[in-house]
Specification:
four-stranded parallel β-sheet, 13 helices, 9 strands, globular, disordered N terminus
C-alpha cells in the first residue's frame, strides 16, 4: 500500500554524505540535552548513588566548592585528586546521558566535544587516525556516550586515541552499561586485549549509578502496533514523516555508513515503518540499533505496523554478547513509539 499522506519522504531514497569536518562540528549533545545541567538533574531519593554521582561529577567538571576560611592561618582543604576521566556505569534510563551533557556544559572551555562511541570511531574512519588525533589534541574535554567495544579493531583504535589525548591534557567523561575493565566480554576474545582494556580503565574513575529506567516508568513496557489505516492517519498528523517498508530500510542501512544515519533522518518529524519483523541477522540488528540511537537522539516519534518493535530482537540475540546494547535499543524504541 502506498501512503496517501502529504509530506511523506522515503529514507531508502536518500544517500547522505558527511565530511570529516562536518562530523567534528556535530560532536555536541543531542537537542534534548541542550539545557542539561546538574541542577536540572533530578536524583531519585530511592537510589542515593544518583545524588552521589551528581556531586562527584560536579566536582570533576567545575572543581570542589571552596571551603570557608576559619582564620588567618587556616588552609583550604585539598580536594581529592581525581583521575583524568570519569566513567558512569549504570542501567538504562537512569540519567547518565543527562549527567554527561551537564559535564559538557559546565566545563568552561571552548574546545570540547560530545559524541557517541560510534561517532568517534566513524571520525577515525573518515579522517584517518593521525588527522583525528591532530584535530582532537588540545581539547579540554571529550564526552563519550555509550562506550562499547564491539570488536578488536575498535579496542585498539580507541585505547590508542584516548591514551594520546589524555597524555596531552584532555579529560574524559564516558557512559556505559559495562564497567571499563569488563568491556568486550562475551563479544570477542577479550583476554587477548586485556592489557589495552586495563590500561584504558586506569584513566577512569568509575562511578556507579543505580535506578529505574525513566523511559519505562510511564509506559507498560511494550511498543504499540498500528493497523494500516491508523498508521496512515498517524503519519498524516506530522509535518514531514518518513514511510518505509522495514525490510527495505534494514537493507538500506547496510549501504549507508552509520556515521551518516543522522543525515538520513534530516528534516523528518516522524519515522514510519511498515511490516516490522523480528531480526535474525546480527549485523542487521546492530545497524538497526545504531539507527535507533540517532532517531532517539533527534527526539523523533516512531509509528509502525507488523511485529511490536520491542520484540524485534530475538531471544538468541538477547542472550548473547550484545544483550545490553539490544536492551537499550528496546528501551528507546518503546519510548519513541509512545512519543
Amino acid at each position: 500500500m502506498t501512503s496517501t499522506a502529504t509530506g511523506i519522504v522515503h529514507l531508502i531514497d536518500r544517500q547522505p554524505q558527511l565530511s570529516g569536518e562536518e562530523m567534528l562540528a556535530s560532536l555536541v549533545p543531542p537537542p534534548q540535552f541542550d539545557d542539561a545541567t546538574f541542577d536540572s538533574y533530578r536524583a531519585d531519593p530511592e537510589y542515593p548513588s544518583q545524588q552521589g554521582a551528581k556531586e562527584q561529577l560536579t566536582t570533576f567538571a567545575v572543581g570542589a566548592p571552596q571551603a570557608k576560611r576559619g582564620g588567618f592561618f587556616s588552609r583550604r582543604p585539598k580536594a581529592p585528586e581525581m583521575k583524568p576521566g570519569v566513567y558512569l556505569d549504570g542501567g538504562f534510563g537512569v540519567g547518565k546521558t543527562h549527567l554527561l551533557a551537564a559535564i559538557y556544559h559546565a566545563v568552561p572551555a571552548r574546545r570540547k566535544y560530545f559524541g557517541s562511541f560510534i561517532e568517534y570511531t566513524a571520525l577515525v574512519g573518515a579522517l584517518g587516525y593521525k588527522q583525528t588525533v591532530d584535530l582532537l589534541r588540545g581539547s579540554a574535554l571529550l564526552c563519550i556516550d555509550e562506550f562499547e567495544l564491539d570488536d578488536p579493531g575498535d579496542t585498539m583504535v580507541m585505547t590508542r586515541l584516548l591514551g594520546e589525548l589524555v597524555a596531552s591534557g584532555t579529560r574524559l567523561a564516558a557512559t556505559s552499561n559495562t564497567p571499563p575493565n569488563a568491556l568486550g566480554e562475551g563479544r570477542f576474545a577479550a583476554q587477548d586485549f586485556l592489557r589495552e582494556i586495563h590500561a584504558m580503565a586506569d584513566s577512569f574513575e568509575t562511578i556507579r549509578i543505580d535506578g529505574v529506567d525513566f523511559r519505562q516508568r510511564s509506559f507498560d513496557g511494550h511498543a504499540p502496533v498500528l493497523d494500516a489505516a491508523a498508521y496512515e492517519q498517524a503519519l498524516a498528523g506530522f509535518g514531514t514523516a518518513s514511510d518505509d517498508p522495514f525490510d527495505a530500510l534494514i537493507a538500506h542501512l547496510a549501504r549507508v555508513h552509520p556515521s551518516r544515519y543522522i543525515r538520513l533522518i534530516d528534516g523528518v518529524d516522524a519515522i514510519g515503518l511498515r511490516d516490522v519483523r523480528r531480526l535474525t541477522d546480527q549485523s542487521e540488528a546492530l545497524r538497526f540499533v545504531a539507527f535507533v540511537d540517532r532517531v532517539y537522539d533527534a527526539e523523533l516519534p516512531i509509528r509502525a505496523t507488523g511485529a511490536p518493535l520491542d520484540e524485534v530482537f530475538g531471544e538468541e540475540m538477547l542472550a548473547g554478547g550484545y544483550r545490553k546494547k539490544y536492551l537499550r535499543a528496546i528501551s528507546r524504541l518503546v519510548a519513541s513509539t509512545h512519543a
